[in-house]
Amino acid sequence: MLGVAPALTMGYLHYAMETTQPYDLLVVGGGINGTGIASHASQAGLKVLLLEQGDLAGATSSASSKLIHGGLRYLEQREFRLVRESLSEREVLLSMAPHLVWPLAFVLPHHDGLRPAWLIRLGLFLYDHLGGRERLPASYGINLRRHPWGGPIKPGFKRGFVYADCWADDARLVVANAMQCRELGGTVRTRTRMLEAHREGRQWRVSVQTPDGGTTTVYARALVNAAGPWVEKVLKGGLRLGARDSVKLVKGSHIVVPALHDGPQAFILQHRDGRIAFVLPYEQGYSLIGTTDVVHHGEPGEVACSDEEVSYLCQLVGEYFERPPQPVEVLWRYAGVRPLYDDQSDNPSAITRDYTLRLDQGGAPVLSVFGGKLTTYRQLARHALQHLKPYFERMQLPAQSAVLPGGVMHGADFEAFYQEACVRYGGLPASLVYRLARQFGDRLMLVLGTANSVAELGRHFGAELYECEVRYLMREEWAQTADDILWRRTKRGLHMTASERQGLADWLLAQAG
Protein backbone atom coordinates (compact mmCIF):
# COMPACT_ATOMS: atom_id res chain seq x y z
CA MET A 1 0.00 0.00 0.00
CA LEU A 2 1.34 3.44 -0.96
CA GLY A 3 0.93 5.46 2.22
CA VAL A 4 2.44 8.63 3.60
CA ALA A 5 4.98 6.97 5.89
CA PRO A 6 6.78 4.91 3.19
CA ALA A 7 6.93 7.95 0.91
CA LEU A 8 8.57 10.02 3.64
CA THR A 9 11.02 7.26 4.51
CA MET A 10 12.19 7.15 0.91
CA GLY A 11 12.63 10.92 1.13
CA TYR A 12 15.09 10.56 4.02
CA LEU A 13 17.13 7.92 2.16
CA HIS A 14 17.24 10.17 -0.89
CA TYR A 15 18.59 13.04 1.19
CA ALA A 16 21.32 10.91 2.72
CA MET A 17 22.47 9.75 -0.70
CA GLU A 18 22.60 13.24 -2.18
CA THR A 19 24.43 15.28 0.44
CA THR A 20 27.94 14.60 -0.93
CA GLN A 21 27.31 16.11 -4.38
CA PRO A 22 26.56 19.85 -4.53
CA TYR A 23 23.49 21.19 -6.25
CA ASP A 24 23.80 24.00 -8.70
CA LEU A 25 20.86 25.86 -7.20
CA LEU A 26 18.97 25.60 -3.92
CA VAL A 27 15.62 27.39 -3.89
CA VAL A 28 14.00 28.23 -0.56
CA GLY A 29 10.22 28.60 -0.82
CA GLY A 30 7.53 26.48 -2.48
CA GLY A 31 5.15 29.22 -3.60
CA ILE A 32 4.62 30.37 -7.16
CA ASN A 33 7.92 32.28 -7.38
CA GLY A 34 10.02 29.53 -5.85
CA THR A 35 8.55 26.71 -7.92
CA GLY A 36 8.65 28.90 -11.03
CA ILE A 37 12.36 29.60 -10.56
CA ALA A 38 13.05 25.92 -9.79
CA SER A 39 11.17 24.83 -12.91
CA HIS A 40 12.97 27.31 -15.16
CA ALA A 41 16.36 26.44 -13.64
CA SER A 42 15.72 22.77 -14.38
CA GLN A 43 14.78 23.68 -17.95
CA ALA A 44 18.08 25.55 -18.18
CA GLY A 45 20.02 22.41 -17.27
CA LEU A 46 20.84 23.14 -13.62
CA LYS A 47 20.74 20.59 -10.82
CA VAL A 48 18.06 22.01 -8.51
CA LEU A 49 16.86 21.42 -4.96
CA LEU A 50 13.65 23.12 -3.80
CA LEU A 51 12.87 23.29 -0.08
CA GLU A 52 9.45 24.21 1.30
CA GLN A 53 8.90 24.39 5.07
CA GLY A 54 5.22 23.42 4.78
CA ASP A 55 3.09 22.36 1.84
CA LEU A 56 3.46 23.67 -1.69
CA ALA A 57 1.37 26.85 -2.08
CA GLY A 58 0.72 26.58 1.64
CA ALA A 59 0.59 30.35 2.23
CA THR A 60 0.18 33.33 -0.12
CA SER A 61 0.09 31.33 -3.34
CA SER A 62 -3.13 29.51 -2.45
CA ALA A 63 -4.82 32.58 -0.95
CA SER A 64 -4.98 34.84 -4.00
CA SER A 65 -7.93 36.10 -6.06
CA LYS A 66 -6.94 33.35 -8.52
CA LEU A 67 -6.58 35.67 -11.49
CA ILE A 68 -4.07 36.00 -14.30
CA HIS A 69 -4.67 39.65 -15.10
CA GLY A 70 -3.00 42.77 -16.36
CA GLY A 71 -4.04 44.82 -13.37
CA LEU A 72 -6.39 47.45 -14.75
CA ARG A 73 -6.05 49.68 -11.69
CA TYR A 74 -2.23 49.60 -11.91
CA LEU A 75 -2.54 51.91 -14.92
CA GLU A 76 -3.60 54.67 -12.52
CA GLN A 77 -0.34 54.15 -10.64
CA ARG A 78 1.56 54.40 -13.97
CA GLU A 79 2.92 50.88 -13.61
CA PHE A 80 3.01 50.54 -17.39
CA ARG A 81 5.86 48.00 -17.54
CA LEU A 82 4.14 45.76 -15.00
CA VAL A 83 0.82 45.99 -16.85
CA ARG A 84 2.43 45.28 -20.22
CA GLU A 85 4.31 42.29 -18.87
CA SER A 86 1.19 40.99 -17.10
CA LEU A 87 -1.01 41.37 -20.17
CA SER A 88 1.41 39.44 -22.37
CA GLU A 89 1.70 36.68 -19.78
CA ARG A 90 -2.03 35.95 -20.02
CA GLU A 91 -1.60 34.63 -23.56
CA VAL A 92 1.51 32.61 -22.66
CA LEU A 93 -0.11 30.89 -19.69
CA LEU A 94 -3.25 30.10 -21.68
CA SER A 95 -1.03 28.04 -23.96
CA MET A 96 1.21 26.57 -21.26
CA ALA A 97 -1.58 25.40 -18.95
CA PRO A 98 -4.95 25.38 -20.77
CA HIS A 99 -6.44 23.16 -18.05
CA LEU A 100 -5.48 25.55 -15.22
CA VAL A 101 -5.87 28.95 -16.92
CA TRP A 102 -8.85 30.07 -18.95
CA PRO A 103 -10.48 33.32 -20.15
CA LEU A 104 -12.99 35.17 -18.01
CA ALA A 105 -15.16 38.15 -18.95
CA PHE A 106 -15.33 40.99 -16.41
CA VAL A 107 -18.22 43.45 -16.15
CA LEU A 108 -17.36 46.88 -14.75
CA PRO A 109 -20.51 48.84 -13.81
CA HIS A 110 -19.93 52.55 -14.22
CA HIS A 111 -20.42 54.49 -10.97
CA ASP A 112 -21.27 58.15 -11.68
CA GLY A 113 -19.63 59.36 -8.48
CA LEU A 114 -16.27 57.69 -9.06
CA ARG A 115 -13.98 57.35 -12.09
CA PRO A 116 -15.43 59.15 -15.14
CA ALA A 117 -16.45 57.06 -18.15
CA TRP A 118 -13.82 58.64 -20.41
CA LEU A 119 -11.05 57.60 -18.01
CA ILE A 120 -12.33 54.02 -17.93
CA ARG A 121 -12.54 53.91 -21.74
CA LEU A 122 -8.96 55.23 -21.96
CA GLY A 123 -7.74 52.63 -19.49
CA LEU A 124 -9.47 49.83 -21.40
CA PHE A 125 -8.01 51.09 -24.69
CA LEU A 126 -4.51 50.82 -23.19
CA TYR A 127 -5.44 47.44 -21.71
CA ASP A 128 -6.43 46.18 -25.16
CA HIS A 129 -3.23 47.33 -26.86
CA LEU A 130 -0.33 47.26 -24.37
CA GLY A 131 0.23 43.52 -24.15
CA GLY A 132 -0.18 42.01 -27.60
CA ARG A 133 -3.63 40.42 -27.44
CA GLU A 134 -4.33 37.38 -29.65
CA ARG A 135 -6.80 34.97 -28.04
CA LEU A 136 -8.62 37.33 -25.71
CA PRO A 137 -11.39 39.62 -27.05
CA ALA A 138 -11.27 43.42 -26.98
CA SER A 139 -13.24 45.44 -24.44
CA TYR A 140 -16.64 46.96 -25.23
CA GLY A 141 -19.47 48.85 -23.58
CA ILE A 142 -22.90 47.47 -22.64
CA ASN A 143 -26.24 48.74 -21.42
CA LEU A 144 -26.68 47.05 -18.07
CA ARG A 145 -30.45 47.36 -18.28
CA ARG A 146 -30.64 45.51 -21.58
CA HIS A 147 -27.74 43.10 -21.47
CA PRO A 148 -28.40 39.85 -19.53
CA TRP A 149 -25.13 40.27 -17.61
CA GLY A 150 -26.56 43.38 -15.98
CA GLY A 151 -29.33 41.34 -14.34
CA PRO A 152 -27.94 41.21 -10.78
CA ILE A 153 -26.94 44.90 -10.75
CA LYS A 154 -29.18 47.57 -9.19
CA PRO A 155 -31.34 49.56 -11.66
CA GLY A 156 -29.48 52.78 -10.89
CA PHE A 157 -26.44 51.52 -12.77
CA LYS A 158 -27.11 51.80 -16.49
CA ARG A 159 -23.72 51.77 -18.24
CA GLY A 160 -21.11 49.05 -18.03
CA PHE A 161 -17.87 47.95 -19.65
CA VAL A 162 -16.74 44.42 -20.46
CA TYR A 163 -13.13 43.30 -20.80
CA ALA A 164 -11.25 40.00 -20.67
CA ASP A 165 -8.70 38.61 -18.25
CA CYS A 166 -8.02 35.06 -17.08
CA TRP A 167 -8.86 32.79 -14.18
CA ALA A 168 -6.26 30.42 -12.72
CA ASP A 169 -6.15 27.64 -10.17
CA ASP A 170 -3.34 29.22 -8.16
CA ALA A 171 -2.35 26.28 -5.95
CA ARG A 172 -2.40 23.82 -8.83
CA LEU A 173 -0.26 26.17 -10.92
CA VAL A 174 2.33 25.98 -8.15
CA VAL A 175 2.15 22.18 -8.05
CA ALA A 176 2.48 21.98 -11.84
CA ASN A 177 5.72 23.99 -11.72
CA ALA A 178 7.07 21.76 -8.95
CA MET A 179 6.20 18.68 -11.00
CA GLN A 180 7.98 20.14 -14.02
CA CYS A 181 11.08 20.75 -11.90
CA ARG A 182 11.04 17.14 -10.71
CA GLU A 183 10.41 15.68 -14.16
CA LEU A 184 13.44 17.56 -15.48
CA GLY A 185 15.68 16.09 -12.82
CA GLY A 186 15.17 18.49 -9.92
CA THR A 187 14.48 17.50 -6.32
CA VAL A 188 11.47 18.89 -4.44
CA ARG A 189 11.16 18.53 -0.67
CA THR A 190 8.12 19.66 1.31
CA ARG A 191 7.86 19.85 5.11
CA THR A 192 11.61 20.54 4.93
CA ARG A 193 13.15 23.72 6.30
CA MET A 194 16.46 25.43 5.75
CA LEU A 195 17.90 26.09 9.20
CA GLU A 196 21.02 28.04 8.27
CA ALA A 197 23.52 28.41 5.47
CA HIS A 198 27.19 29.39 5.43
CA ARG A 199 29.50 30.25 2.56
CA GLU A 200 32.40 27.88 2.12
CA GLY A 201 34.46 29.29 -0.72
CA ARG A 202 32.30 29.28 -3.84
CA GLN A 203 29.50 27.17 -2.45
CA TRP A 204 26.92 27.18 0.33
CA ARG A 205 26.87 24.67 3.16
CA VAL A 206 23.22 24.35 4.16
CA SER A 207 21.76 22.76 7.28
CA VAL A 208 18.32 21.31 6.56
CA GLN A 209 15.61 20.05 8.90
CA THR A 210 13.85 16.97 7.51
CA PRO A 211 10.17 16.13 8.08
CA ASP A 212 10.98 13.74 10.94
CA GLY A 213 12.75 16.53 12.86
CA GLY A 214 16.25 15.34 12.01
CA THR A 215 18.89 17.36 10.21
CA THR A 216 21.06 16.83 7.18
CA THR A 217 23.54 18.90 5.20
CA VAL A 218 23.46 19.80 1.53
CA TYR A 219 25.72 21.95 -0.65
CA ALA A 220 24.80 24.36 -3.43
CA ARG A 221 26.67 26.73 -5.69
CA ALA A 222 23.92 29.36 -5.43
CA LEU A 223 20.83 30.07 -3.35
CA VAL A 224 17.51 31.68 -4.22
CA ASN A 225 15.53 33.13 -1.33
CA ALA A 226 11.95 32.98 -2.58
CA ALA A 227 10.40 32.60 0.86
CA GLY A 228 7.66 35.17 0.19
CA PRO A 229 6.51 36.71 3.49
CA TRP A 230 9.51 35.08 5.19
CA VAL A 231 12.10 36.53 2.77
CA GLU A 232 13.60 38.93 5.34
CA LYS A 233 13.59 36.26 8.05
CA VAL A 234 15.60 33.94 5.79
CA LEU A 235 18.04 36.73 4.90
CA LYS A 236 18.67 37.91 8.43
CA GLY A 237 18.21 34.59 10.20
CA GLY A 238 19.21 31.56 8.17
CA LEU A 239 21.68 33.45 5.94
CA ARG A 240 22.78 36.08 8.50
CA LEU A 241 22.96 38.77 5.86
CA GLY A 242 21.80 42.35 5.94
CA ALA A 243 19.02 43.59 3.67
CA ARG A 244 18.78 47.01 2.07
CA ASP A 245 15.28 46.13 0.84
CA SER A 246 12.27 45.03 2.79
CA VAL A 247 8.73 43.81 2.28
CA LYS A 248 5.54 45.21 3.66
CA LEU A 249 3.11 42.48 4.63
CA VAL A 250 -0.39 43.26 3.37
CA LYS A 251 -3.26 40.93 4.19
CA GLY A 252 -5.81 40.18 1.51
CA SER A 253 -9.00 38.41 2.53
CA HIS A 254 -11.68 36.65 0.48
CA ILE A 255 -15.08 35.18 1.21
CA VAL A 256 -17.13 32.51 -0.56
CA VAL A 257 -20.95 32.67 -0.59
CA PRO A 258 -23.72 30.93 -2.54
CA ALA A 259 -23.73 32.19 -6.14
CA LEU A 260 -24.92 35.80 -6.41
CA HIS A 261 -25.63 35.56 -10.13
CA ASP A 262 -26.05 33.16 -13.03
CA GLY A 263 -23.79 33.18 -16.04
CA PRO A 264 -20.05 32.88 -16.65
CA GLN A 265 -19.18 36.56 -16.13
CA ALA A 266 -17.27 38.11 -13.25
CA PHE A 267 -17.76 41.61 -11.86
CA ILE A 268 -15.21 44.24 -10.89
CA LEU A 269 -16.62 46.83 -8.49
CA GLN A 270 -15.21 50.22 -7.58
CA HIS A 271 -15.33 51.45 -4.01
CA ARG A 272 -15.40 55.01 -2.70
CA ASP A 273 -12.12 54.40 -0.85
CA GLY A 274 -10.35 53.87 -4.17
CA ARG A 275 -10.14 50.11 -3.92
CA ILE A 276 -11.80 47.60 -6.20
CA ALA A 277 -13.27 44.18 -5.46
CA PHE A 278 -14.08 41.17 -7.61
CA VAL A 279 -17.17 38.96 -7.61
CA LEU A 280 -16.07 35.80 -9.36
CA PRO A 281 -18.02 32.68 -10.37
CA TYR A 282 -16.47 29.93 -8.28
CA GLU A 283 -16.65 26.16 -8.07
CA GLN A 284 -20.02 25.82 -9.83
CA GLY A 285 -22.58 27.28 -7.48
CA TYR A 286 -20.61 29.82 -5.48
CA SER A 287 -19.26 33.36 -5.69
CA LEU A 288 -15.76 34.32 -4.58
CA ILE A 289 -15.50 37.91 -3.33
CA GLY A 290 -12.29 39.78 -2.61
CA THR A 291 -10.02 41.31 -1.74
CA THR A 292 -9.07 43.61 1.12
CA ASP A 293 -5.80 45.44 1.77
CA VAL A 294 -4.80 45.53 5.45
CA VAL A 295 -1.23 45.99 6.69
CA HIS A 296 -0.25 42.90 8.68
CA HIS A 297 2.12 43.28 11.64
CA GLY A 298 2.15 39.73 12.99
CA GLU A 299 3.77 36.49 11.90
CA PRO A 300 3.09 35.68 8.21
CA GLY A 301 1.61 32.29 9.08
CA GLU A 302 -0.83 33.74 11.63
CA VAL A 303 -3.42 35.40 9.44
CA ALA A 304 -7.20 35.17 9.17
CA CYS A 305 -10.08 36.99 7.52
CA SER A 306 -11.67 39.17 10.20
CA ASP A 307 -15.36 39.89 10.75
CA GLU A 308 -14.68 43.51 9.83
CA GLU A 309 -13.30 42.44 6.46
CA VAL A 310 -16.32 40.22 5.86
CA SER A 311 -18.62 43.17 6.54
CA TYR A 312 -16.54 45.44 4.30
CA LEU A 313 -16.76 43.05 1.36
CA CYS A 314 -20.48 42.42 1.85
CA GLN A 315 -21.21 46.16 2.03
CA LEU A 316 -19.12 46.91 -1.05
CA VAL A 317 -21.00 44.31 -3.11
CA GLY A 318 -24.26 45.61 -1.64
CA GLU A 319 -23.70 49.00 -3.27
CA TYR A 320 -24.06 47.34 -6.67
CA PHE A 321 -26.01 44.08 -6.35
CA GLU A 322 -29.76 43.99 -5.84
CA ARG A 323 -29.32 40.95 -3.62
CA PRO A 324 -26.16 41.60 -1.63
CA PRO A 325 -24.45 38.85 0.36
CA GLN A 326 -24.92 38.74 4.12
CA PRO A 327 -22.15 37.84 6.58
CA VAL A 328 -24.19 34.86 7.81
CA GLU A 329 -24.10 33.42 4.26
CA VAL A 330 -20.33 33.15 4.18
CA LEU A 331 -19.43 29.48 3.73
CA TRP A 332 -15.66 29.87 3.64
CA ARG A 333 -13.27 32.70 4.31
CA TYR A 334 -9.54 32.77 3.75
CA ALA A 335 -6.71 35.26 3.99
CA GLY A 336 -3.18 35.47 2.68
CA VAL A 337 -0.25 37.79 3.27
CA ARG A 338 1.15 39.50 0.20
CA PRO A 339 4.89 40.17 0.60
CA LEU A 340 4.87 43.48 -1.29
CA TYR A 341 8.09 45.34 -1.97
CA ASP A 342 8.16 48.21 0.54
CA ASP A 343 8.17 51.40 -1.56
CA GLN A 344 7.36 53.51 1.54
CA SER A 345 3.76 54.10 0.44
CA ASP A 346 1.36 54.81 3.30
CA ASN A 347 -1.61 53.38 1.37
CA PRO A 348 -1.60 49.54 1.21
CA SER A 349 -3.58 49.64 -2.04
CA ALA A 350 -0.98 51.91 -3.67
CA ILE A 351 2.07 49.76 -2.85
CA THR A 352 3.62 48.44 -6.03
CA ARG A 353 2.74 44.89 -7.09
CA ASP A 354 5.96 44.73 -9.10
CA TYR A 355 8.89 42.61 -8.00
CA THR A 356 12.49 43.42 -7.08
CA LEU A 357 15.40 40.98 -7.31
CA ARG A 358 18.51 41.54 -5.19
CA LEU A 359 21.76 39.64 -5.73
CA ASP A 360 24.31 39.29 -2.93
CA GLN A 361 27.49 37.96 -4.57
CA GLY A 362 30.26 37.40 -2.05
CA GLY A 363 31.74 34.27 -3.66
CA ALA A 364 28.66 32.06 -3.55
CA PRO A 365 25.65 34.13 -4.65
CA VAL A 366 22.21 34.42 -3.08
CA LEU A 367 19.32 36.01 -4.96
CA SER A 368 16.38 37.32 -2.92
CA VAL A 369 12.91 37.90 -4.32
CA PHE A 370 10.86 40.83 -3.00
CA GLY A 371 7.24 41.17 -4.10
CA GLY A 372 5.78 39.68 -7.25
CA LYS A 373 2.37 38.37 -8.23
CA LEU A 374 0.85 35.20 -9.64
CA THR A 375 0.53 36.61 -13.16
CA THR A 376 4.19 37.52 -13.64
CA TYR A 377 5.84 34.54 -11.96
CA ARG A 378 7.28 33.23 -15.23
CA GLN A 379 8.96 36.52 -16.15
CA LEU A 380 10.24 36.86 -12.59
CA ALA A 381 11.79 33.39 -12.87
CA ARG A 382 13.47 34.22 -16.18
CA HIS A 383 14.86 37.48 -14.81
CA ALA A 384 16.12 35.66 -11.71
CA LEU A 385 18.09 33.18 -13.83
CA GLN A 386 19.50 36.00 -15.95
CA HIS A 387 20.93 37.47 -12.74
CA LEU A 388 22.52 34.09 -11.93
CA LYS A 389 23.77 33.27 -15.42
CA PRO A 390 27.34 34.60 -14.84
CA TYR A 391 27.79 31.83 -12.26
CA PHE A 392 26.68 29.01 -14.56
CA GLU A 393 28.41 29.00 -17.92
CA ARG A 394 26.47 25.97 -19.14
CA MET A 395 23.07 27.44 -18.27
CA GLN A 396 20.90 27.65 -21.37
CA LEU A 397 17.50 29.15 -20.67
CA PRO A 398 15.06 28.11 -23.42
CA ALA A 399 13.57 30.87 -25.55
CA GLN A 400 10.10 29.66 -24.55
CA SER A 401 8.93 27.97 -21.38
CA ALA A 402 7.83 24.36 -21.71
CA VAL A 403 4.17 23.42 -21.47
CA LEU A 404 3.35 22.61 -17.85
CA PRO A 405 2.51 19.04 -16.79
CA GLY A 406 -1.08 18.30 -17.78
CA GLY A 407 -1.12 20.97 -20.47
CA VAL A 408 -0.36 18.87 -23.55
CA MET A 409 -3.50 19.43 -25.63
CA HIS A 410 -3.77 19.91 -29.37
CA GLY A 411 -4.06 23.62 -30.03
CA ALA A 412 -4.23 24.24 -26.25
CA ASP A 413 -7.95 23.47 -26.70
CA PHE A 414 -9.33 22.35 -23.35
CA GLU A 415 -12.90 21.90 -24.56
CA ALA A 416 -11.84 19.48 -27.29
CA PHE A 417 -9.72 17.60 -24.74
CA TYR A 418 -12.68 17.39 -22.36
CA GLN A 419 -14.98 16.02 -25.06
CA GLU A 420 -12.44 13.29 -25.83
CA ALA A 421 -12.21 12.50 -22.11
CA CYS A 422 -16.01 12.17 -21.91
CA VAL A 423 -15.91 9.58 -24.67
CA ARG A 424 -13.02 7.71 -23.05
CA TYR A 425 -14.69 7.71 -19.62
CA GLY A 426 -18.32 7.50 -20.67
CA GLY A 427 -19.22 5.36 -17.68
CA LEU A 428 -18.29 8.08 -15.19
CA PRO A 429 -20.36 11.17 -14.28
CA ALA A 430 -19.63 14.05 -16.68
CA SER A 431 -19.23 16.42 -13.72
CA LEU A 432 -16.46 14.24 -12.30
CA VAL A 433 -14.66 13.94 -15.64
CA TYR A 434 -14.84 17.71 -16.12
CA ARG A 435 -13.41 18.48 -12.69
CA LEU A 436 -10.59 15.98 -13.06
CA ALA A 437 -9.81 17.20 -16.58
CA ARG A 438 -9.57 20.75 -15.23
CA GLN A 439 -7.34 19.71 -12.35
CA PHE A 440 -5.05 17.24 -14.06
CA GLY A 441 -5.29 17.94 -17.79
CA ASP A 442 -3.62 15.20 -19.81
CA ARG A 443 -2.55 13.50 -16.55
CA LEU A 444 -6.21 12.52 -16.15
CA MET A 445 -5.41 9.03 -17.41
CA LEU A 446 -2.85 8.57 -14.63
CA VAL A 447 -5.58 9.29 -12.08
CA LEU A 448 -8.37 7.18 -13.56
CA GLY A 449 -6.44 4.49 -15.43
CA THR A 450 -8.89 2.17 -17.17
CA ALA A 451 -11.73 2.76 -14.70
CA ASN A 452 -15.10 3.36 -16.30
CA SER A 453 -17.46 3.10 -13.36
CA VAL A 454 -17.48 4.73 -9.93
CA ALA A 455 -17.17 1.27 -8.37
CA GLU A 456 -13.65 1.10 -9.79
CA LEU A 457 -12.52 4.38 -8.23
CA GLY A 458 -12.11 3.13 -4.67
CA ARG A 459 -13.54 4.64 -1.53
CA HIS A 460 -15.82 7.64 -1.96
CA PHE A 461 -15.02 10.34 0.58
CA GLY A 462 -17.84 12.67 -0.54
CA ALA A 463 -18.37 15.37 -3.19
CA GLU A 464 -17.01 13.08 -5.95
CA LEU A 465 -13.62 12.72 -4.27
CA TYR A 466 -12.50 9.12 -4.67
CA GLU A 467 -9.63 7.06 -3.38
CA CYS A 468 -7.87 6.82 -6.75
CA GLU A 469 -7.55 10.61 -6.87
CA VAL A 470 -6.34 10.85 -3.28
CA ARG A 471 -3.70 8.19 -3.87
CA TYR A 472 -2.52 9.98 -7.01
CA LEU A 473 -2.22 13.26 -5.07
CA MET A 474 -0.18 11.50 -2.38
CA ARG A 475 2.00 9.66 -4.88
CA GLU A 476 2.63 12.39 -7.45
CA GLU A 477 1.84 15.76 -5.87
CA TRP A 478 3.35 15.74 -2.36
CA ALA A 479 -0.09 15.75 -0.65
CA GLN A 480 0.00 14.43 2.92
CA THR A 481 -2.81 16.00 4.95
CA ALA A 482 -6.52 16.54 4.49
CA ASP A 483 -5.93 20.28 4.09
CA ASP A 484 -3.40 19.62 1.32
CA ILE A 485 -6.03 17.67 -0.58
CA LEU A 486 -9.29 19.45 0.28
CA TRP A 487 -8.22 23.10 0.06
CA ARG A 488 -5.12 23.23 -2.15
CA ARG A 489 -4.90 20.30 -4.60
CA THR A 490 -8.69 20.34 -4.92
CA LYS A 491 -11.45 22.53 -3.48
CA ARG A 492 -13.57 19.57 -2.44
CA GLY A 493 -13.59 20.80 1.15
CA LEU A 494 -16.07 23.49 0.13
CA HIS A 495 -18.51 20.86 -1.10
CA MET A 496 -18.14 18.32 1.71
CA THR A 497 -19.70 18.07 5.14
CA ALA A 498 -17.60 18.29 8.27
CA SER A 499 -17.98 14.55 8.84
CA GLU A 500 -16.84 13.80 5.28
CA ARG A 501 -13.78 15.98 5.70
CA GLN A 502 -13.00 14.22 8.98
CA GLY A 503 -13.44 10.88 7.24
CA LEU A 504 -10.65 11.73 4.82
CA ALA A 505 -8.41 12.91 7.66
CA ASP A 506 -8.98 9.63 9.54
CA TRP A 507 -8.26 7.58 6.40
CA LEU A 508 -4.99 9.45 5.81
CA LEU A 509 -3.98 8.87 9.43
CA ALA A 510 -4.65 5.16 9.03
CA GLN A 511 -2.50 5.05 5.88
CA ALA A 512 0.38 6.71 7.71
CA GLY A 513 0.11 4.14 10.50
Give structural notes:
The model is unreliable at 1-18 (pLDDT under 50). Helix content is 32%, strand content 24%. The chain has 513 residues and is an alpha+beta fold. Helix 2 (32-43) runs parallel beside helix 5, helix 2 (32-43) crosses helix 8 and helix 9 packs across helix 10. Strand 1, helix 2 (32-43) and strand 2 form a beta-alpha-beta unit. The strands form three sheets. Strands 3, 4, 5, 6, 11, 12, 13, 14, 15 and 16 form a ten-stranded mixed beta sheet that branches. Strands 1, 2, 7, 8, 9, 10, 17 and 18 form an eight-stranded mixed beta sheet that branches. The chain has helices at 4-18, 32-43, 80-96, 117-130, 170-183, 231-238, 307-318, 377-388, 414-424, 430-440, 444-448, 467-476, 482-489, 498-512; strands spanning 23-28, 48-51, 67-68, 101-109, 140-143, 159-168, 187-189, 193-200, 203-209, 215-225, 247-258, 266-270, 276-282, 286-290, 294-295, 332-341, 355-360, 366-371, 460-462, 465-466.
Task: Identify the notable features of this structure and list them briefly.
single chain, 513 residues, alpha+beta, 10-stranded mixed beta sheet, 8-stranded mixed beta sheet, 14 helices, 20 strands, 32% helix, globular, disordered N terminus, FAD, G3P_DH_FAD-dep
Arithmetic mean pLDDT: 92
What distance lies between the first and last C-alpha atoms, to the nearest angstrom? 11 Å
Helix proportion of residues, in percent? 25-40%
Task: Give the helix tally.
Answer: 14
Radius of gyration (CA) equals 23 Å
Number of strands: 20
What structural class do the secondary elements suggest?
alpha+beta
* Uncertain regions spanning at least 5 consecutive residues: 1-18
Q: Which percent band covers the strand fraction?
A: 15-25%
Please describe the biggest sheet, giving its number of strands, its sense, and whether it closes into a barrel. Answer: 10 strands, mixed
Q: Write down the overall geometry.
A: globular
InterPro entries: DAO_C, DAO_C_sf, FAD-dep_OxRdtase, FAD/NAD-bd_sf, G3P_DH_FAD-dep
Family: Belongs to the FAD-dependent glycerol-3-phosphate dehydrogenase family.
Domain FAD dependent oxidoreductase: 24-378
Domain Alpha-glycerophosphate oxidase C-terminal: 409-495
